[in-house]
Amino acid sequence: MKFSKRMENMKASEIREILKLTQQPEIISFAGGLPAPELFPVEHMEIVSQKVIQNLGREALQYSTTEGYNPLREHIAKRMGKMNIKASFEDILITSGSQQGLDFSGKVFLDPDDIVICESPSYLGAINAFKAYECQFREVATDKDGMILEDLEKTINDNENVKFIYVIPDFQNPSGKTWSLERRKGLLEIAKKYDLVIVEDNPYGELRYEGQHLPALKSMDDDGRVVFLGTFSKTFAPGLRIGWVCADHELLNKYIMVKQGSDLQTSSMSQRELSVYLDDYSLDDHIDKIISVYKKRRNLMLDTMKESFPQEAKYIIPEGGLFIWVELPETIDTKELMVKAVEEKVAFVPGGSFFPNSDTRNTMRLNFSNMNEENIVIGIKRLGQLLQNEL
Amino acid sequence: MKFSKRMENMKASEIREILKLTQQPEIISFAGGLPAPELFPVEHMEIVSQKVIQNLGREALQYSTTEGYNPLREHIAKRMGKMNIKASFEDILITSGSQQGLDFSGKVFLDPDDIVICESPSYLGAINAFKAYECQFREVATDKDGMILEDLEKTINDNENVKFIYVIPDFQNPSGKTWSLERRKGLLEIAKKYDLVIVEDNPYGELRYEGQHLPALKSMDDDGRVVFLGTFSKTFAPGLRIGWVCADHELLNKYIMVKQGSDLQTSSMSQRELSVYLDDYSLDDHIDKIISVYKKRRNLMLDTMKESFPQEAKYIIPEGGLFIWVELPETIDTKELMVKAVEEKVAFVPGGSFFPNSDTRNTMRLNFSNMNEENIVIGIKRLGQLLQNEL
Predict the structure, then answer these.
(1) Cβ atoms of residues B55 and B272 within 8 Å
(2) How far apart are CA A291 and CA A271, in angstroms?
(3) At what angle do helices B14-21 and B124-131 cross, to 10 degrees?
(4) Of these four, A169, B19, B295, B344, which has the most CB atoms within 10 Å of its CB?
């Protein structure tokens, strides 16, 4: 049996495999990027799903257009407006989570050996999605304010066939870093200078626990070179699999064509359920609730890390999002550490998979949204003890 | 802005564009492949969706495994068993409709210029899905019993890089043809002789209105070379977007990896809703209802065609499925006819798009599942009049 060449590059996502290991209920897992299920608006969804079945039952069970359910596209366009992104519903394509927006970005732009420029480290799921199109990656170093723009420009000059720059400017996964306004503007200037597309992935932008909101790249995009990927997975619920692509009309048409061949459309039912929820309830109020819980969890994790992690562990305080990124002394291999951690009933994601090219073994990503406060304290202490033992 | 090479081959699906045209309620449309919405089990789904939210609410809103919800995989494995296909739940991957199974088949197997062998004509959605991987197509002629096996073998011998043979053995879309047992066995022998994969697409197999059920290729597959694609879109409801891939474990793992990068997983909610429906109700009873309605509609369409179509219009009687395929004299261009038909408030799909290579203009596909009996009679008479005028 002969598979396509792309299959040689692909391996099962390490996060997914780790998540399987950590599904035993007694494990305290900081591994996934799962939202807190106790915050899901289950009662409201009960009302909403009844309403959808009763009022829109037949159309919710029928095929519908590839672009998505228009009232939901309108809701999203309005939310984009709040972020100063000018978009009509026609600039929105509903996708099955933003993971599908990543896959489609690969499909629309990438030929074998084309270059994707990304932050170092970058989101594992995006790396895997793009890899399926046999691209190569160039990682650009970052400091606390985002990509170092001189490095970015050098990387562009050193490489032919750069197709797009992939970034997560707000509470980056996995590093937790947020780009400064200056860097955002600088990135747009460089993209314009070299006529490159930017894929802006923004799953956590609305989950800010401190500091000032910064404008999305797409809100400053005056010539249609930014593709914005959004999702309701972190602000509402991932189980419905609803995300979106926002892009200028002509470019969005390419994504729509790709969606037709890939899965025709996202669930008619889920789209209507979410749309009616947005009609009847305030997502902003719901997000406020999420923020207040996650902020506490973040603070508690940081406080406990301060107490129990060895001084050699370095990390920045993320102003939002779901993750704390830890850099350890080079003597520590976090893949090996993970085996010991699972024995101690605590889990994290070893950082290596977030670097598409380099072989970095001394980092880990910790998620603080999914575990309750008690488990955060117990789990971080266990991890601290393990780290102390290693040093 | 530079797109990938694959985008040069891709154009918006003609069916989808036509469906948009025909969304005006006054048009009698035989164009889509839509099931009859009045048959959707809306009342049962109301009960089921309440039950899922109340009993499984948090997990239905949370991320879950890429492979799919295990109880649903078990249900599907059991249904496969009824078709004499030996499968455990581990041989089933839940996809977002069988369209996604088609896309993944392209992703797993196809490099640029690889060859896909298909029936002539073949399913437009499959052609579009595979085209995204820059393959080429070789069409094999069919008679009333399926592919002509001598032509198939010659096509294999004439071409390098044949990756798989794509077939719809039951009530083929668009031709309505069903492969004989002998041809099925012959296809499997040829696939074995040349060590080729078969992608068996079976969206309508359970919708048989007359004649004997014939064994699926997968049920006779003794060395794991058949990938079976199934869906609940035609037997339950397409709006949930639930299909599946059934393949041997090692091969299925490739599809699972591809699914991870493409959209992580299919809706946790939809999977649980369907699974609880299958726990609590009889899908077989529901399918019996669908069959009795569609059979009447098919018969009525055939009777009306007999009365009002010109004798030069040729078609076979499909034993199941959703479509009647019509071959017209070569003087008729159905794309041009379609414009006149829409003026007369009736629609169909011009057959040209079902031929990946050849430029066949004198065919059309008629769907009989979506329109009620009154509209079938009115619409077919209008179409008959148009055809009479053309000849």
Answers:
(1) no
(2) 24
(3) 130
(4) A169
ipTM comes to: 0.96
Q: Do B128 and A260 touch (CB under 8 A)?
A: yes
Q: Are B322 and B234 in contact (CB under 8 A)?
A: yes
Q: Given this model, what pLDDT does residue A16 score?
A: 62
- CA A94 to chain centroid, in Å, comes to 16
- Between strands A92-95 and A243-246, the pairing is antiparallel
Tell me if residue B169 falls in helix, strand or coil: coil
Are A260 and B111 inside 8 Å of each other by CB? no
Positive or negative, the Cα torsion across B231, B233, B236, B241? positive
Share of chain A above pLDDT 90, in %: 92
* Cβ <8 Å between B195 and A1: yes
Which CATH number is B42-280 given? 3.40.640.10
The pLDDT score that the predictor gives to residue B19 is 62
Instruction: Say if the Cβ atoms of A63 and B34 lie within 8 Å.
Output: yes
- Give me the CATH code for the A55-280 domain, please: 3.40.640.10
Q: Which residue has the higher pLDDT, B113 or A17?
A: B113
Helix axes B249-263, A97-109, angle to 10 degrees: 90
DSSP string, B274-286: HHHHHHHS-HHHH
How distant is the Cα of B389 from the closest Cα of chain A, in angstroms?
34
Enumerate the residues of chain A whose CB falls inside 8 A of the CB of residue B260. 12-13, 16, 128
Q: Which of residues 207-266 of B touch A (CB under 8 A)?
A: 225, 233, 237-241, 251, 253-254, 256-258, 260-266
- Surface of B (316-355) touching A: CB under 8 A: none
The tens digit of pLDDT for each residue in B166-221 reads 999 999 999 999 999 999 999 999 999 999 999 999 999 999 999 999 999 999 99
Q: Does domain A6-41+285-390 have CATH number 3.90.1150.10?
A: yes
Q: Which of B293, B32, B9 is nearest to B137 (CA)?
A: B9
Q: Which tokens sit at A128?
A: 């895997």
User: CA-to-CA distance for B92 and B71, rounded, in angstroms?
Assistant: 11
- The minimum CA-CA distance between A265 and chain B, rounded to whole Å, is 8
User: Chain B partners of A267 at a C-beta cutoff of 8 Å?
Assistant: 96, 239-241, 267, 270
- For chain B positions 355-374, those within 8 Å of chain A (CB to CB) are none
Determine the pLDDT at residue B18: 66
Do A40 and A256 form a contact (C-beta atoms < 8 A)? no
Split at pLDDT 50, 70, 90, the class of B17 is low
> Do B42-280 and B6-40+285-390 fall under one CATH topology?
no
Asked if the B6-40+285-390 domain carries CATH number 3.90.1150.10, the reply is: yes
A311/chain B closest Cα distance in angstroms: 35
Token pair listed for A219:
């809100």
Q: Is A231 helix (H, G, I), strand (E, B) or coil?
A: strand
Instruction: Indicate the burial class of A363 (C-beta count within 10 angstroms; 0-12, 13-18, 19 or more).
Output: buried
Two tokens, residue A61 = 């069970």
Q: Is B7 on the interface with A (CB under 8 A)?
A: yes
CA B363, CA B252: separation in Å to the nearest integer? 37
Domain definitions of chain A by residue range: 6-41+285-390, 55-280
What's the whole-model pTM score? 0.97
